[in-house]
Amino acid sequence: MKPNLRGLTDLGFTQLEAEIYYHLAQSDPTTGYQVARALGKPTANTYQAIESLLHKGAVIVDEGAERLCRAVAPDLLLNTMEREFAERRKRAEALLTDLDTPASDDRIYSVRSRAQVLERACGMIAGCRTILLLDVSPGMLAELRPAIAKLKGRKVRAVAKLYRPETLPGVRGFVDPRGHATQARWRGEWINVIADGREFLMSFFTSPDAEPTVAYWSANNFMAWVYHSSLSSEIILAGMTSTVESASPSKLRTELERDLNILRQLASGSAPGAIDLAHRLHVATTPKTPRKRTRNAK
Fold this sequence. Notes:
Layout: H1 6-9, H2 15-24, H3 32-39, H4 43-55, E1 59-61, E2 69-71, H5 74-96, E3 108-110, H6 114-127, E4 131-136, H7 138-149, E5 157-162, E6 171-175, H8 179-185, E7 189-195, E8 199-205, E9 212-218, H9 221-246, H10 249-266, H11 272-280
Parallel strand pairs: 4-5, 5-6
Antiparallel strand pairs: 1-2, 3-9, 4-7, 7-8, 8-9
């Protein structure tokens, strides 16, 4: 059975280049002609692919008469590719850093790949300044843990809806007592993130390793704040339901008031998304600052 060479094609190899490198990596040095025969490929195409692999630093070729080909050791190849990518990234970053980006964008964008969803989610978590809402299924939570861990010590009010008990440093988690039933009903995985009430990401996967069945991101402030208001209420409702079911009668009122206070903070008009939207809709009001009374004031 032929091996799945996606791990190599994802690195930029063509299918033929991947087959040749995989073959050479487990073979003694050999000629291009012998490689073509072993793989059942046209000789001319094989030589072209070997030449391409040579330029990519994936193979080395003996300069003798037979020009024997040998694969560069996988660890050396991957380290070289990593260094080259880091250099290309620096050049791209230098080019793109000072670009003028649009002030606002109300469009809703479809995110087609799992990698893009994860990168977008981690970027939103890292870029959040005041309020972060998370609704993430257990199967996808592991992917976001490194980004979430960096919230600890930051002045970000991060709140998450959880489907089972989890430890998330820097995040106030509310376990939905109906979490198991929700997972049974929605047979899949999801990542939903709202940052500062300004931008949102929603996505659904059939399994943790699958590409997204549906995924959308938008910085539409109106929709982001409406979704923020909805999800914050949903999260606190889950927490209050759990409190009612588990708290002792003597502590029930205190714990419900605590949960309700968190909801008020999440829905505060001082949240960035709420402020932006109020100004955009021309309903913002500037509180009057009380003047200090002077000695001569009557």
